[in-house]
Amino acid sequence: MFFSMKELSMKANVYDFLHIWLGLGLLTSQGQLWQQRRKLITPFAMLNNFSETLIDNTVALIKKLREESSDAINVFKMMHLIALDNICETAMGIKIDALNNPKLDYIRAIEDSTHSLMNRMLKPWLWNDTTYFLAPVGRKLKKDLSIIFELTNKVIKERREEKSREKISGDFNANESQTCDDTGGKKKLAFLDLLMEACDSQSVPLSDKDLSDEVNTFMFEGHDTTAVALSLFLLGLHPEIQEKCFEELDEMFRGSAR
Question: Model-level pTM?
């Protein structure tokens, strides 16, 4: 009942800055649209069938950390990359291997777009759309987002075509392809797959743009917050390292009130 009240699902104006990337996904939508999307998406928040994937990626991360020869390791960067790997597989069902390919255009575009939007939110002189998108920083954001959208739209198009082929091939083949992967094992359905199935079963029309908004929202909300949480968790497990970080910050700011 609490969340059914329309006024309580309204979003602050600052969320408008995210529309260029997330459209009207769950994070940025409000009112009746938000309630509809939340009801549709909430059952898929826990993707338990990807536990094996998460374990494999964690093992790869540990191996990567052990291979590092330098005394100082940017743990946040590592956590950020592994979070992207996990979310790409669970959200879109694709493997980008960000951990071993940190310079991929898609990864850079995700990082730069996140930074640009957060930076814009904090600086009122960047709030005007006209001047912002005429400036180099605004033009760069649009270019980065086009890279992100290209991959998302490609995956959605492929899923649509796959579902069409399954319908044409007949019920038996369609059911078999939906439940089994190429090796005969149980097929893992990513967030996008589950969302498309829910749209069909519940007769909820979602356009490719709607699907893109939700997948991009999943990516945006998950990768950076996960990386921060894991980094802070590791810091909390090692008080001696935490103390070194404090000393470094204290030396850097030298008692400044900044």
Answer: 0.81
